[in-house]
Every structure is written in structure tokens, then in C-alpha cells.
Amino acid sequence: MKLIVNADDFGYTRAVSYGIVDAYQTGIVSSTTMMCNVDDLEHPVQLAEQNPTLGVGIHLVLTSGSPVSENVPSLVDGNGQFFRYDEFLKNIQSLESEEIEREWTSQIERFFSTGLKPTHLDSHHHVHARKEIRPIAVQLAKKYGIPLRRVNRETSSGGIYGPVKTTDVLFTDFYKDNVSIDMFETLLLKSVEKVQTVEINCHPGYVDEALVKKSSYVYQRLKEFTVLTSPELKKRIQQLNIDLITYRDI
């Protein structure tokens, strides 16, 4: 089995970005996805350039910070900020598809402007998994010819991806109270000898003041980092003959 361990939120804050890179250099993280609507995009870009074998994709955003493009009124609150996740769900029926596509295109183009080549697309809070938004993500993946994170853990996608590459399975269970070596191994054992490619997404990181101000998921990132860099987990992966890959390899 081939495994992608993708750290979401690259670029969210400097501490998060440093933690992701260290989890790659000393642990089992093989891939990450960059938030392209952040103010300091130069920092994660520099880290990506310094670690060329780290897979770096695009973490499409609709629920954090402000948009890259202009005139997307259905996507923002009265302060011009993206809706927080709870408010986003309340307003999802009133979001304009054209504005989502234009905003995500702007985020993708900003990534390309750095000179990096994205490995794949996924999204903050998995918003591309919503049935109202998923066709937009699939269409953009087709347009740019890059893989897309699948939206569920089933091995059958019902043909929704067409020619777009994705893994056979995605697990999102390694989160909050389920962050442990045993949980990670449980997810692996569900898939070994059953499917060819699996993604487990995660959120390792260090903590800084910016993270405390912006996120409700703060010190749990340190716990994830500890698990993902533990020698015991690396040993278990080796014992299961699992190959760590990126989306470049699917």
C-alpha cells in the first residue's frame, strides 16, 4: 500500500509552517497543502523551495481570512472576511458558484505565481466535499490537470471525478481526541492489502500568538506533531511495508 500523509494549513502561521516542515523532515508527513490567501505567502514558499521532495499542493479556502479576488460579496461577511465555518454552513445555499470558482482560481493562480508546481488540490474544512461545491473543485482539478483529494472514505466514487486523479481512500479520523499512534495504525490496518493508495490528512504544527488568535485547534497540533514524529509510528509503518508517497506518485 502507498500512503500520503498530508499536513493541511501550510502557511496558516509561521509556527504551523515550521511544524509541518519538521514533521516532514523528522517524521512521516510526506505532503502538505498551502493556504494561498494568507498575507505572508513568501514564508511557506521559501520552506517549500528548501524541501523540494515535500509534496506541496493547494489548500483552497472559503472559511478563513479574506479572499484573494475582488467583488465576491456572497462569500464574505460585513467586514469583507470569509464566513467562519459555522456561518459558512448557514449561508451555503446563498453562495454564488461563479464567485467560488473565481476566488479559487485566484488562489490557484497565486500559487502558480510563486514558481511552485502544485501536487494536488484540497480545501480548508473539507468544504469541497459539500455537494453544492464539489463540482467546482472537480472542474478546477480538470482545468489545471492536477489531482484532487477525494471527499469520502469509500473506494467507489460514483464517477464524480472523471479523469481527475485521486487516492482510493481518504481518512480524516486522525483529529482532536483521536490523535494517537494506535488510531493511526487502526486506519492503516483498515486499508493494507485492500486498496492501493490512501491519504490520511493531519494538522501538525508549533504554536505562536497568531495561531492562538486565529484558530480553535491550537495545542492539539503539538500532539499531532509528537505522534507523527514518533519512532514507534515510523517503525509500525515499516513493518506494514507501507510506502510513503506524495500526490506526484499516484
UniProtKB/TrEMBL annotation:
<keyword id="KW-0460">Magnesium</keyword>
<dbReference type="Pfam" id="PF04794">
    <property type="entry name" value="YdjC"/>
</dbReference>
<comment type="similarity">
    <text>Belongs to the YdjC deacetylase family.</text>
</comment>
<comment type="function">
    <text>Probably catalyzes the deacetylation of acetylated carbohydrates an important step in the degradation of oligosaccharides.</text>
</comment>
<dbReference type="InterPro" id="IPR022948">
    <property type="entry name" value="COD_ChbG_bac"/>
</dbReference>
<dbReference type="InterPro" id="IPR006879">
    <property type="entry name" value="YdjC-like"/>
</dbReference>
<keyword id="KW-0479">Metal-binding</keyword>
<dbReference type="InterPro" id="IPR011330">
    <property type="entry name" value="Glyco_hydro/deAcase_b/a-brl"/>
</dbReference>
<feature type="binding site">
    <location>
        <position position="59"/>
    </location>
    <ligand>
        <name>Mg(2+)</name>
    </ligand>
</feature>
<feature type="binding site">
    <location>
        <position position="124"/>
    </location>
    <ligand>
        <name>Mg(2+)</name>
    </ligand>
</feature>
<dbReference type="GO" id="GO:0000272">
    <property type="term" value="P:polysaccharide catabolic process"/>
</dbReference>
<keyword id="KW-0378">Hydrolase</keyword>
<keyword id="KW-0119">Carbohydrate metabolism</keyword>
<comment type="subunit">
    <text>Homodimer.</text>
</comment>
<dbReference type="GO" id="GO:0019213">
    <property type="term" value="F:deacetylase activity"/>
</dbReference>
<protein>
    <recommendedName>
        <fullName>Carbohydrate deacetylase</fullName>
        <ecNumber>3.5.1.-</ecNumber>
    </recommendedName>
</protein>
<dbReference type="GO" id="GO:0046872">
    <property type="term" value="F:metal ion binding"/>
</dbReference>
<dbReference type="GO" id="GO:0016811">
    <property type="term" value="F:hydrolase activity, acting on carbon-nitrogen (but not peptide) bonds, in linear amides"/>
</dbReference>
